[in-house]
Design brief:
Blueprint: E1 6-9, E2 13-17, E3 23-28, E4 31-34, E5 39-42, H1 46-63, E6 70-73, E7 78-82, E8 85-86, E9 89-96, H2 99-105, E10 112-122, E11 131-132, H3 134-139, H4 145-168, E12 171-178, E13 180-183, E14 186-189, E15 198-202, H5 212-215, H6 221-232
Antiparallel strand pairs: 1-2, 2-3, 3-7, 4-5, 6-7, 8-13, 9-10, 9-12, 10-11, 12-15, 13-14
The protein binds uridine-5'-diphosphate (UDP).
Uridine-5'-diphosphate binds at residues 90, 92, 98-101, 129, 175-177, 197-199, 211.
C-alpha cells in the first residue's frame, strides 16, 4: 500500500491517504513535544520504537476483543490503519496518581487508585486539552450516550489487559490516554499506544520509563523506550 498525499501532520505522527479511501498510512516520526508543543526535540529511533511498541500493544488488545484501527505495520516507521471519524475526546485511565491529577487535586504522586479512574479531556490545543465530563460531551455533541459508554467500557477493558501485561514484564502502567473513532458505525481504538502517551514505572525501582523522561529532562529517553519494548517482548529488529 503506497502512501499518497499528506492529510495531516500532528506533533509526532503524520497521516497519509492511500489509493483506498478507507485506509490511511500513519507515520511515526522522531519529533517529540511536551507542554503543548512548547518543548520540542528530535529523538533518534523514536518513530521506529513507537511503531513497534504500538503494533505489539494493538495486537494484544485486538486479541482481547477490543476493535482497533491498526491493520498492519508496513515498515520501520509506517503503519496501515483504517480511516476513522475521530471523536474529539481523550480517554485517560489512571492506576496510580501522577501528572495533572496531582496538580488538580493536590494528591501525592504514587498513590494507588482503587478503582482506577476514568477521565475525559477535550482535544483542543488552544485550550490545553481541558478536563471535561460526560454532560459536557453530550451538551456540545462531542459524543452521544452510547459512544461515551462504549469508550469507557473499552478503555477500562484495555486497562485489564495492559496492566497485567506490564506487571508481568516488571513494570507498572501508571496511566495512559486512548482516542477512539468511528468506522462504518463501529467504534474502534485509534491513534496509538506508546511510551509517548502513557506513564510506565519500573516495578522494582519506580524509575520512569516514558515521556516524563523527556518532560523532566531525565535523559536517555529512547534507551528507556527500548527497555520497555525488550521487557514486553517487542522485537526491535526485523
Ligand atoms: N496524555 C497524552 N496526551 C495528552 C494528554 C495526556 O498522551 O494530550 C497522557 C500522558 O502522557 C499521561 C496520561 O495521558 O500518560 C495522563 O496525562 P495527565 O492528565 O496526567 O497530563 P500531563 O501530566 O501529561 O500534562
Amino acid at each position: 500500500m503506497q502512501k499518497q498525499a499528506l492529510l495531516y501532520a500532528g506533533k509526532a505522527k503524520s497521516v497519509f491517504k492511500t489509493d483506498d479511501p478507507d485506509l490511511y498510512v500513519m507515520e511515526f516520526r522522531n519529533d517529540t513535544s511536551a507542554f503543548d508543543g512548547a518543548k520540542k526535540a528530535q529523538l533518534e529511533r523514536k518513530g521506529e520504537v513507537n511503531n513497534r511498541i504500538n503494533t505489539f500493544i494493538m495486537e494484544r488488545l485486538a486479541e482481547a476483543g477490543i476493535p482497533v484501527h491498526l491493520v498492519e505495520r508496513l515498515d520501520a516507521t509506517h503503519a496501515l490503519v483504517r480511516r476513522l471519524e475521530m471523536l474529539p475526546l481523550e480517554c485517560v485511565v489512571r492506576n496510580v496518581a501522577a501528572g495533572s491529577l496531582c496538580r488538580r487535586l493536590g494528591v501525592e504522586e504514587g498513590r494507588t487508585l482503587t478503582p482506577p479512574t476514568f477521565e475525559l479531556f477535550l482535544k483542543n490545543d488552544e485550550l490545553h486539552d481541558p478536563f471535561v465530563n460526560r454532560s459536557h460531551a453530550l451538551a456540545f455533541g462531542w459524543a452521544d450516550e452510547s459512544q461515551l459508554d462504549e469508550m469507557e467500557r473499552l478503555t477500562l477493558k484495555a486497562n485489564d489487559v495492559l496492566s497485567r501485561l506490564f506487571d508481568e514484564a516488571g513494570m507498572k502502567l501508571v496511566d495512559y490516554k486512548l482516542e477512539f473513532g468511528i468506522s462504518e458505525g463501529q467504534m474502534l481504538l485509534g491513534d496509538e499506544f506508546s511510551p509517548d502517551g502513557c506513564r510506565i514505572w519500573d516495578k522494582a525501582t519506580g524509575e520512569k520509563m516514558d515521556k516524563d523522561r523527556f518532560r523532566q529532562d531525565l535523559g536517555d529517553v529512547i534507551g528507556f523506550y527500548e527497555e520497555v519494548a525488550r521487557r514486553l517482548g517487542v522485537p526491535l529488529e526485523g
